[in-house]
Amino acid sequence: MSFDLKKYLANNPLLNEDLIFEAVSDDEIEKAAAAALNVSIDDIPDQEPTEEEKAKVDEVAATLVITIAGLIPPALNLVGFVANKAKQMFGLDDQEQKELEELEKKIEFTKDLIKKSDKSTFGDISAEERQARARLERLEQEKDKKFGTKIGNMAKHAGHSLHEAYTYPIRKMLQFVAWTAEKFGKKTKLQDEKYREKLANIIYATTMLGIAGFGVATHIKHLAGVAPVLTTLADGVKAGKSVVDIVKDAALLI
Where are the alpha helices (DSSP H) in the chain? Predict the structure, then answer.
């Protein structure tokens, strides 16, 4: 991949200082790929295999198993320290997360009331709708006052430097896995670069939802592969599912 993480971090000192983001070496990424595939690191090619290499028969090919569930833990280990630091800086604690969820439920309930409210003969809004609109405004102001800063700061990083630096090691690990599959004659969706990008983005989006709450959703839905599965991700986070299970569910939809 042409992206240079060390150079990127050097050109983005705020990201490096704020998140203590250290460049992950290719050796560490290869080790993660080997762990995901349960093979020796010597079996992981550091470049796309040649046609001659692909044509060779190897006993590893018979036992090589690639599953989404198996790929996620090593991927998360590569960026775990960043997620932990981001959570300290921008995340909501358990009580805040619970309060935010309750507020969002009230907001959605009030929006539904407004949609269902009857109109008068002359097209004026009813007293019930007027009250609901006033309540909605109060609830949204309360949400912004209590959680706007944390969500806003997280969204700023989620929309720019953090996303690129966070997903890079994951995307490269998935590329190593794809190359290994090719080397041993295995066909996998991971050989599609766009699929790898979508999978990395889904892992990232799930992590960000867990860290910053659902208010960050509007700032990450533009990422490739995320919008079609955003409801699945949010529902999984709300239900307390593990990142592995959430991503596994979402991966079936892309």
Answer: 5-10, 13-19, 26-37, 51-55, 60-63, 68-90, 94-116, 127-158, 161-183, 193-212, 217-220, 230-238, 243-251
Go through the chain and tell me how many residues it has: 254
N- to C-terminal Cα separation, the chain? 23
- Inter-residue contact 53 to 183 (CB < 8 Å): yes
pLDDT, mean over the chain: 81
In this structure, which amino acid lies at residue 116? K
CB 230 within 8 A of CB 250: no
What single-letter DSSP state applies at residue 119?
Answer: B
Read off the pLDDT of residues 2-57 as tens digits, 9 standing for 90 and up: 556 566 666 665 555 555 456 678 899 999 999 999 999 998 998 998 888 787 76
Residue 178 has pLDDT above 90, yes or no: yes
Q: Do residues 213 and 241 touch, judged by C-beta distance below 8 A?
A: no
Q: What is the pLDDT of residues 78-93, one digit of tens each?
A: 887 766 666 666 666 7
Instruction: Identify whether the C-beta of residue 149 lies closer than 8 Å to the C-beta of residue 175.
Output: no
Q: Pick the closest to residue 225 from 153, 174, 157 (CA basis).
A: 174
* Prediction pTM value: 0.70
Q: Going by C-beta distance under 8 Å and a sequence separation of 6 or more, which residues neighbour residue 214?
A: 100, 101, 104, 234, 237, 238
